[in-house]
Amino acid sequence: MLDTGEVAVWTAVGTSDGLLDRKVQRAQIKATDLAVWRGEDGGVRAWSNRCPHRGMRLSYGFVRGNRLTCLYHGWTYDGTGGCALIPAHMKLTPPKTITVAMYRAAEAGGLIWVASSKTEGEPNFSGSWRAIRSIHIGAQASAVESAIEASPLESGHLVRASSPRAYIHELKDGGRVICALQEINDHQTMMHVAVEGSESLDRNQRIDAWTRRIRRAAEKLIAAAKSNRPVLEGAKV
Ligand code: FES
Questions:
Q1: pLDDT tens digits along 165-200
Q2: Which end of the chain has less Cβ packing within 10 Å, N or C?
Q3: Residue 55 CA: which ligand 1 atom is closest?
Q4: Ligand 1 in contact with 75 (CB < 6 A)?
Q5: Do 44 and 38 meet the contact criterion of CB atoms below 8 Å apart?
Q6: What is the pLDDT of the chain when averaged over all its residues?
Q7: What region holds the Rieske domain (predicted)?
Q8: Is the shortest distance between the CB of 77 and ligand 1 below 6 Å?
Q9: DSSP labels for 61-103?
Q10: What interface predicted TM-score (ipTM) does this complex get?
Q11: Residue range 33-57: average pLDDT?
Q12: What is the residue extent of each domain of the chain?
């Protein structure tokens, strides 16, 4: 198992309903490159996105049953990260030393979260949650955080959690919204948003519009910083 500071806290990398059974997708958290995949047992795994053979990205691979196969030479890894099959040597039992570096993975609050093996606890959001969307923002995470804190979703209470790395909006009408940031690099951030409670088209649309306002505001902060224009602290976005 790997441990890096970049995933020392639980970090969202996508929505639960965005990762179907037997699918794999790439997720980046700064220099940490992950292959996040779901087997036919429904379980989500987060692995280093590097095949132990020749370093091909495992996110280009494919899932069969509860195994992930590398696209390049077909080395196949079981759900525990161990190499189970080397097609060029079908009679060989792969050495137990051939393993993919693994991270922790969990699903909670409608989102998929990853963390290093040393991270304690698990994200835990009671109640029933639905993902609203994942939105790409062309700004560093700190600019997105500034935009969120300057313009929280509706009136209500905004709680900033450190692990999982997320904002929890406690709305006045009793519902909650998770807004989780995935820092891809110094210029890009993914924001994953989920809502608690029953389906409401009106509420979904309001949350969706808010995510787009946050994106505009964060990208504006970056543009202003680049052009040395002053940005009013606490300005509504
Ligand atoms: S690089 Fe993955 S099987 Fe060869």
A1: 899 988 777 788 999 999 999 999 999 999 998 778
A2: N
A3: 1
A4: yes
A5: yes
A6: 90
A7: 10-114
A8: no
A9: SEEETTEEE-TTT--EE-TTSBEEE-GGGTTPPPPTT-B--EE
A10: 0.99
A11: 97
A12: 10-115, 129-227
Q: Compute the average pLDDT of residues 121-138.
A: 92
Compute the CA torsion angle 108, 175, 8, 107 (nearest 10 deg): 10
- DSSP 8-state symbol, 167: E
Could you give the percent of the chain with pLDDT greater than 90?
A: 69
Other CB atoms within a 10 A radius of the CB of residue 200 amount to: 13
Predicted confidence at residue 199, as pLDDT, reads 77
Residue 66 Cα to ligand 1 midpoint, Å, equals 18
Domain 10-115 superfamily per CATH: Rieske [2Fe-2S] iron-sulphur domain (2.102.10.10)
Instruction: Look up the pTM and report it.
Output: 0.90
- What is the Cα–Cα distance from 44 to 25, expressed in whole angstroms? 11
Q: Which helix (H) or strand (E) holds 105?
A: strand 102-108
Query: How high is the pLDDT of residue 2?
Result: 44
Q: 3-class SS at 190?
A: strand
Residue identifier of the C-alpha nearest atom 1 of ligand 1:
54
**Given strand 176-183, what is the order of strands in its sheet?**
129-137, 189-196, 176-183, 166-171, 156-161
Q: What angle do CA 62, 64, 65 make, to 5 degrees?
A: 145
| 39 CB burial (10 A radius; 0-12, 13-18, 19+) | buried
For residue 53, give both structure tokens: 């053979």
